[in-house]
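Quick log. Single chain, no ligands specified.
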Amino acid sequence: METLMTFEKLIDNVKTYIRRESDLARLEAAYQMSSFKHATQTRKSGAPYITHPLAVAYILSELSAGPNTLIAALLHDTLEDTPTSYDEIKAQFGEEVAQLVDGVTKIGKISFNQEVSQADNHQKMLLAMGKDIRVVLIKIADRLHNMRTIHYQSSEKQLKIANETLDIYAPLAHRLGLFKIKAELEDISLRIVNGPFYHRIKHLIENQEQIKNVSIEHMMSKIKEHLSEHHVEHYQISGRTKNIYSIYKKMTKQNKDFEDIYDILAIRVIVDRIEDCYQVLGVIHAHFIPIPKRFKDYIAVPKPNMYQSLHTTILSDDGSIFEVQIRTYEMDKVAEYGIAAHWAYKESKEYSKEKEQFEIAQKLKWYADLLKMSEDADDKNEGANEFVQTVKNDILEANVYVFTPKGQVVELTKGCTPIDFAYRIHSDVGNKMVGASVNNRIVPLDYELQTGDIVAIRTSKNVTGPSEDWLKMAKSSHARHKIKGFLNKQNKDNLLEMGKDMIERELTPLKLEMSQITDEFVVKHFSKNMTETVEDLFVEVGKGIISPKTVAAKLSGKELDKETMLQRQLEKAKRILTTNHESGLIVEGLSTPQIKIANCCLPVPGDSIVGYVTKGSGIAVHHENCPNVKNLTEMRFVDVYWATNITRKYPTRIQIIGQNRDNILSEIIATINATSLTIAEVNAISNARLESITTLKILTSSKSEIENVMVNLMKINNIYHIERRFK
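-> predicted structure:
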């Protein structure tokens, strides 16, 4: 049963840090308004809807959120789910609260059906975060309560919500330093996404706790004894267990066995001052053997989410291995509550949203990067998918920390190069880059940066900018986006000059002037080509989309008669529609091309495809997303198309991952046999993580057939991932 939150419980917690009567009265007014607006609504559990905003506000009160944040939490669903207006909230609670509620509303409920809509919503959330971080704090609290009650949702929706939580919300909570919330979001999500693995790790942890409880108590007793000998006082010592999802990531992404993870159980020592941290470290290293390369000083170099602590791994006298974390009480508070601990509401402090945003950007380098990316997205109307991927890849998943020559920390993803570093500093630094040195040693531009590297970029005003090769060397979405933008502009400039020259060559014999081509002329004659300025016209001519002869003819008033134009269009159509019936593929201008479907990716009708002219084997047709395509020479690509009169079937591969149980393979085969598809090949294995991995080669006549059978396969119990295989 869901534990229902009450206003009395919320207000009791709030009164521990908010005592001003006027603020408490506003909170009660917000509760009364929300309760009235949601009066006829219930949760899927059957509980009154008001229990949800109350629970969200309570989660934020545990983070010592301010009155306006709590009021906005109580009202966060009123604009979307009730007949409440922005002006109504503004009139009763002020502009700031109305903006917060509106910000949460604009993030909107995620559409679980359309990928584009999902990216749009994620983009709204990240952009809203750039405008006021409290909006996302409310959204994270909202997601946490929804995860706590997720068992009331359908299995399909649970899976999608859990995946999204792992994708966006848990990394955001981590970046904000909200460790307790992040750990809870991850563990609930893992229980849904991969239940067998979750319960297996949970069982292993419980077993280890039982085995090591005596050892931990013995170790803590020994540490206390040694600290007393060295007159260390005023400290706390305790044990802690790593959350299940963190262990899952190490086992799957780092391919570690459970027994090889040293920090599952750790001992934490909390002291008063920073100098006490190093004294405790010295005492522990003096009496226990430290494991080489396992010491980390996050006090001198804090994590990007402000986390500070000393970590060391030691060998006890009974042969057990323990991680020991040493930090101050203030550091421990930040480690548990992150940014919320630093900006906890204090009635004596003068509050300013703008000042707080600035301070956050100063403290959290990644947040400053997010603000910059948000500005770029606003200025250049960047696509939602691209913006979200950039933030996810370059901010939420960053895990390599390098330094500028002045000692500033720059955070990058694993595999990044000096090119990524340069563009993270500034676009102009990237565009003018001519070389790089790491740790005072000149390195190639594709050098993979490592944590601790000191990176210096050499620039020159005389360089023309990045080359196409840089796209292969840059690993971050941000750098690749900036390089593509520069190259596209450069390419556009080249096309513009080319088109201008082509038109000029046509006009000269006719004694016509370039000055006669104006924006009005272009709109009149070429608006149907989505071309409305002189520059656009030059670019389209440079691309070969519009003929310079057509421009000259329209300018001179001697256009081709309709019959001649129709004849030319028919001839062009005939060239385009020349098809090879055996392959079902079209190559413009070739009547009997030698074509083969690439075996590495096996595209099917409906897939986006590219053709590649091979040496001696004709044209190989690849799926657009085939990993091999990026390694091919660009000059040898040709356009290929699927014909409309296809009658044959094509092979393609899908991979199905699920729990390893009896009859799962027979259920998969039965589901496919119930369709018009044919199974050509089956390969089924199980791995060390108790998963069944089935790879099938299936004969189909269209992409939609494959997608439909994948939807049906997902309905089989204990299957949790299906994908097309392009390699």
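The longest strand covers residues 650-659.
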